[in-house]
What does this fold into?
Amino acid sequence: MIKVTIYKTERQEYAGFDMEGHAGYAETGEDIVCAGVSALVINALNSIERFTDDETSCISDEDTGSIEFRFDGTPSHDATLLLDSMILGLEEIEDSNDYEKYIDIIFKEV
It folds into this structure.
């Protein structure tokens, strides 16, 4: 299962997120759930880097499927919108009857 933990502050601003695990929907290279989640997450990270001036840190491990992403300060409006879009896509996968058991999205206050 893919576990995505979204961190938000008391002011409901994003602090970052962690992602870990593999969906296990199908064999490696055939897993459409992993592919969809990876596309959403990597596109959001690349978009934040390219289209915003936000300072961030990101540590990833392809073998374990883990990503630790953090904002170094308060995220900009554009970065917030990009994460909102990523989360919308992830929630659509999670809410699907076919894929809900392969992804878990958790929100934590930090």
